[in-house]
Design brief:
With 71 residues, the chain is mostly helical. The chain contains three helices and no strands. The chain has one domain.
Length: 71
């Protein structure tokens, strides 16, 4: 007879905490795999775009400094 593994056993095997499991379950529970994958792709793209905007802001600041004759 097979028995169901406890949350603690599953989490231990996956090397995550029970709190992480519950947070993930609350956030992604009921979501389809494609939806979760798309969300992860969007989060990655958002991070890339934020980095790009930050780099452009630094470039603009540098150009302003050069224009003021501080170089």
């Amino acid at each position: 007879m097979l028995r169901a593994a406890s949350e603690e056993e599953v989490c231990r095997k996956l090397e995550i905490s029970v709190a992480t499991y519950h947070r993930w379950n609350k956030e992604y529970g009921g979501a389809k795999m494609e939806t979760v994958k798309r969300l992860k792709e969007l989060e990655k793209e958002n991070g890339r775009l934020k980095k790009l905007v930050a780099e452009q802001a630094l470039d603009m600041d540098m150009l302003k400094e050069i224009n003021r004759g501080k170089w």
